[in-house]
Specification:
The protein is α/β, with parallel strands linked by helices and about 240 residues long. The protein has helices spanning about 25-35, 50-60, 65-85, 85-90, 100-105, 120-130, 150-165, 180-190, 205-210, 225-230; strands at about 5-10, 15-20, 95, 110-115, 175-180, 195-200, 215. Helices cover about 45% and strands about 10% of the residues. The strands form two sheets. The chain has a five-stranded parallel beta sheet with strand order 4-1-5-6-7, sandwiched between helices. It has a two-stranded antiparallel sheet with strand order 2-3. Helix 1 (about 25-35) packs across helix 3 and helix 5 crosses helix 10. The longest helix is centred in the N-terminal third of the chain and has 17 residues, at about 65-85. The protein starts with 5 loop residues before the first strand and ends in a 5-residue tail after the last helix. About 45% of the residues are buried. The model has no long low-confidence stretch (mean pLDDT about 95).
C-alpha cells in the first residue's frame, strides 16, 4: 500500500519569487483599462487575494465592485501582466532555495505540490513560468485569488480539487501551507492546514510566530530543513 501523500500548497510572492516591485504598475495599468480612470490608491496587498484587492481598490475610488466590473478588472489584470513579462524576468528573481526545495519535493512520490496564492490563476502560472518553476507544481489542484475573497476558503478548495484528482482525502493532517505573511498563517489555521512560515517578505519571524505559525524558517536556503519542515518529520 502506498504511503499517504502530503498536499503542499505554496504561496508565490515573497515566498518563492519576487517580481521587483512591479505589482503596483500592473494594477495601475489594469485599473485604467477597466475603469477609464487613473488609479490614485491601491488597497493593501499583503497576503490578500486578487479578488479582495481589486474589490477594495475599486471602492477606494468610489466604484461599485459589481461582478461585471470585477470580471473586467480581472481580465485587464491578466492582459497587463502579459505586457510586463519581460520586465518581470529582468527585475524579478527566484528567492534563495526555492528552486531546490521545489525540485526535491517534486521528486517525492508521497507529495502533491501545488499553489495557494492571492494571484489569479493565469498570473500565478505566468509568474512561475517566467522563472521555470511551473514544471514543479500541479496547477489543476491549486487555489487562486479570484476563487474566493478569503484565503481560508482557498485551502478547502485546494483540498477538494486534490481529492477529486488523486482519489485521496486531504485534511489538516496531510496538508501544509508555506507562506510569508500572517494572512497565510491564518489561512492555514482556519482552512485546515499545517503552516510553515518563511520570513522572506515584509513580515519578520517574530510577527509570524505571534500570528501562530507552528514553524518559522528564515528562508528556504537550507533544503533538508525545508523538506523536513514541510513533511513534518525528521526523515526528510
Amino acid at each position: 500500500m502506498s504511503a499517504e501523500r502530503t498536499l503542499v500548497l505554496w504561496d508565490i510572492d515573497h515566498t518563492l519569487i519576487t517580481i521587483g516591485g512591479l505589482s503596483r504598475d500592473i494594477y495601475a495599468d489594469a485599473f485604467g483599462a477597466a475603469t477609464g480612470q487613473a488609479m490614485r490608491e491601491l488597497a493593501d496587498m499583503t497576503g490578500r487575494t486578487e479578488l479582495a484587492i481589486t474589490s477594495d481598490t475599486l471602492r477606494l475610488h468610489g466604484i461599485d465592485a459589481s461582478d461585471l466590473v470585477l470580471d473586467t478588472f480581472g481580465s485587464a489584470l491578466a492582459e497587463a501582466f502579459l505586457t510586463y513579462e519581460a520586465a518581470i524576468k529582468e527585475r524579478g528573481r527566484v528567492l534563495d532555495g526555492a528552486f531546490e526545495a521545489l525540485t526535491v519535493l517534486a521528486d517525492r512520490a508521497d507529495v502533491v505540490q501545488s499553489v495557494l496564492t492571492g494571484n489569479m490563476e493565469p498570473i500565478a502560472i505566468g509568474k512561475l513560468k517566467a522563472f521555470d518553476l511551473d514544471r514543479f507544481v500541479d496547477f489543476e489542484v491549486g487555489a487562486y485569488g479570484m476563487d474566493h475573497e478569503e484565503r481560508p476558503e482557498l485551502v478547502r478548495l485546494a483540498q477538494k480539487r486534490a481529492a477529486d484528482k488523486y482519489g485521496e482525502v486531504f485534511t489538516e493532517g496531510n496538508t501544509v501551507l508555506i507562506g510569508d505573511t500572517p494572512n497565510d498563517v491564518r489561512a492555514g489555521h482556519l482552512g485546515g492546514a499545517r503552516v510553515v512560515a518563511v520570513a522572506t517578505g515584509t513580515c519578520d519571524a517574530a510577527l509570524l510566530r505571534d500570528a501562530g505559525a507552528e514553524l518559522v524558517l528564515p528562508d528556504l536556503a537550507d533544503t533538508p530543513a525545508v523538506v523536513r519542515a514541510v513533511l513534518g518529520r525528521a526523515d526528510g
